[in-house]
Specification:
The structure is a single chain. By secondary structure, the protein is an alpha+beta fold. It folds into two domains: 161 residues, FAD/NAD(P)-binding domain; 147 residues, D-Amino Acid Oxidase, subunit A, domain 2 (D-Amino Acid Oxidase, Chain A, domain 2), CATH 3.30.9. It is built from eleven helices and 19 strands. The strands form three sheets. Strands 1, 2, 9, 10, 11, 12, 18 and 19 form an eight-stranded mixed β-sheet that branches. Helix 1 links the parallel strand 1 and strand 2. The longest helix is centred in the last third of the chain and has 19 residues. The chain is globular. The protein starts with a strand and ends in an 11-residue tail after the last helix.
Length: 371
């Protein structure tokens, strides 16, 4: 039977909230995860499981590198009835101009300083890395062979949930009490010494109840998927920011392709987005010319003004982990460790960078490598 009072209530059962809850349970804390609809029912349930360390800030690289060490050992660290296979297939970020190539060079310099084995390649080298890649319009590219993805990303989310005490019902109110917090939801009331808000944009109205403004916005995102194809056509992920295009072949046989600029209503925008994907295929990956993309998968990023997450304490016994701009899965292990440390009173130096106060104090750390 669930206790009426716990050490920590985590709001949100996406991969970040579940990872935080797991880290706290491993340290002996009693934890309940409060979730509106179900485990991984938001963005965590549709994300393709990509894991990369090619970021444009030292902060992003550090979070990704710590998480990468976990992901490489996920099969032994997480309990799952299915294999949690991480494929190091490589990510290729291409440049069509000297200006973009310069930006990629600057990113690689930051990455290398943080121990990420990325490098700049010329067009012929890029063609060798990605068979079938057309390079006539390329100036060069950035490559990291260790970037990759999970065959079954939703199984990873479910593995983080194993052993979790999940309370279904939308959290409607947080009340400050003498000994902590009262969490009110559709399933009743729960007392907790500490609350961690990890519910994406839904974290903002709960924080606002106590005069705390979280600058989180919902940003619609869309991608196309093919029906399964037996022959692997594109193994590395290919990204062209300048053409708003990305594509790769997933382990289940489906090809993923995206218009990175796709925003707005799916019904109205789908024909335009599909046309832009076709343009990217013709220019870069003609091997995909005859692949059909009948499935449009839509989701949303929770974004901040600098496209970096907000982490750490925001009040007495109140913490936040939100604003991941679509890369919460990639850095969830590091975030879980950092937030669990903060709940126990140990503040990681990275919280001096990703704290809420940075917005008011104009200490933004813009991440240029969000796709």
């Amino acid at each position: 039977m669930r206790a009426d009072s716990v050490d920590v209530a985590v709001v949100g059962a996406g991969v970040v909230g579940l990872a935080v809850a797991r880290a706290l349970r491993e340290r002996g804390a009693s934890v309940v995860v409060c979730e509106r609809t179900g485990i991984g029912s938001g963005q965590s349930g549709i994300q393709p499981g990509g894991v990369r360390r090619q970021w444009g800030t030292a902060t992003g690289c550090r979070l990704a590198t710590e998480s990468f060490a976990f992901w490489r050992e996920a099969q032994s660290l997480l309990e799952s009835p299915v294999e949690l296979r991480f494929r190091e297939c490589g990510y290729l970020f291409v440049a069509h101009s000297e200006r973009m190539l310069g930006r990629l060079r600057a990113n690689v310099a930051i990455q290398n300083a943080e121990g990420v084995p990325s490098l700049i390649v010329d067009p012929p080298q890029a063609a060798n890395l990605v068979p079938g890649l057309r390079t006539e319009t390329l100036s060069g590219a950035a490559w990291c062979a260790e970037d990759g993805y999970f065959d079954r990303p939703q199984a990873v989310v479910e593995a983080f949930a194993r052993g979790a005490d999940v309370l279904l019902g939308e959290v409607t109110e947080l009340r400050r009490g003498a000994g902590g917090w009262e969490v009110l939801s559709g399933s009743g009331a729960l007392s907790a010494a500490t609350v961690v808000l990890a519910a994406g944009v839904a974290s903002a109205p709960l924080a606002a109840q106590h005069g705390i403004t979280l600058p989180l916005e919902r940003e619609e995102r869309h991608l196309f998927l093919s029906t399964p194809i037996a022959e692997c056509l594109v193994e590395p992920l290919v990204v062209s920011v300048e053409r708003s295009f990305a594509a790769k072949h997933l382990a289940d046989g489906r090809v993923l392709a995206s218009d990175l600029a796709a925003t707005g209503d799916a019904a109205a925008g789908a024909p335009r987005w599909r046309a832009r994907v076709r343009e990217g295929i013709r220019e870069l990956l003609p091997i995909l010319e005859y692949v059909d993309f009948p499935i449009l998968a839509s989701g949303a990023y929770d974004v901040t003004p600098d496209r970096q997450p907000i982490l750490g304490p925001i009040g007495d016994g109140l913490h936040v982990a939100a604003g991941f701009s679509g890369h919460g899965f990639m850095i969830a292990p590091a975030v879980a460790r950092i937030v669990a440390d903060a709940v126990e009173g140990r503040l990681d130096p990275i919280l001096d960078v990703l704290d809420l106060a940075r917005f008011e104090e104009e200490r933004l750390v813009p991440e240029p490598q969000v796709v």
